[in-house]
Amino acid sequence: MTLPSDQQYWNQQSWVESANDPAVGFSLQSLPLCSFVPPDSADGASHLGVGIGEFVLDLHSLSSKGYFSRLGPDVEAALLAPQLNPLMRCGYGAWGPRRLMLSMDLLKGIDSRGRSELEPHLVPQRDVRFCSPFAVGNYTDFYSSIHHAENVGRLFRPDQSLLPNYKWVPVGYHGRASSLVISGTGIRRPSGQFRPPGQDAPEFKPTTQLDYELEVGAYIGVGNALGEPIPIDGIAAGVLGAESRIFGLSLLNDWSARDIQAWEYQPLGPFLGKSFATSVSPWVVTMDALDPYRVPLNPRTAADPKPLPYLAEPAWMERKSGFEIKLEVHLSTTQMRASSMAPVRLSRGNLRELYWSFGQMIAHHTSNGCNLVEGDLIASGTVSGPRDGSQGCLLEITRRGASPIRLPTGEVRAFLEDGDEVILTGFCERDGFPRISLGECRGTILPGAGPI
User: Which of 239, 350, 382, 426 is least enclosed by beta carbons within 10 angstroms?
Assistant: First the structure.
């Protein structure tokens, strides 16, 4: 079973007509994975699916009909699972053949069993309820955008915007996996302890500085044994390297209560100002689908220190360690929705603006012997660019609330209000290749429960 030549493949179309619409962004070459509950489900159990155009292709029902029997019983059983973890346990070699089969059978004009066998298993996306694609045991959030780090640093430390360790080590912290929620889940305003301006003593009450963070998450497909670091260059070491452990990327919003965070973060870093909720997109775009959109990362300069050897990527890896993924944040308020107004774009950034690559994050994460497992989520941290309009959070955009933004309705925002909906989107574009979407990651702010 072979696909057309590489360039031919990236220009092929599908018999699913909406897959050929760039505005939809779920092309034949993308095939992002998800978990969903079909509209006719009797038991409410979730199925694995693949996005193609405006539809979800039900992998569970396909597997139950024997479609994947050629891939062996382990893969066939894994595709009957409600989440992707069992497929990851089948190993690196199991991921590509599944994609190859579907690509062949979804191609327009190829003589195959594809349309007659697959079409009955297409479900309109608008009719399904999405679920978390992975059972995430561990979640780690990094701080990999130097522009974000500098912008925030200037607000809190005008004389030292960047701390001395930033250009030497990928900074991160262990997040809270239990409060990861799927896109569309309401976000309840948290209460916490913080000190209002001009007061000597702190108070405990609902946050008044609720913020979003535009991020991209990487799901681990192949982990490592406890005590065995993952090398940055797997080829040189004769093992699977750091970036090769990633199964796919997804949009992520790490909601933040800035007033709680500012009061509690010294000396041990983020805690309750972050752990109340993190939203993830239902879609996981696999690394092979993203391959044509690889680029070098932008921010590192000749004057910057060279990474220590365990973080040093060889030249061939540096040329492809970033991704040309345009990221946008849109906001819709209650008043805007009542007036049938479209959401307003707050910012546009690009994933290539990271200072540290996902491979470097993973190599550092495991350098002390920490073990990653399949389904672990590694987040980039807020993605910001060097220009106005490319900041990835309101903390940066409004300069900690000192320069509020005015919306088309006349409303003013320094931070998020109850009823505000934040929508993250991401897409890849390159001449000669299809537009690939990462889907959306949405969340609407709900009133808090109030102080205890």
Answer: 239
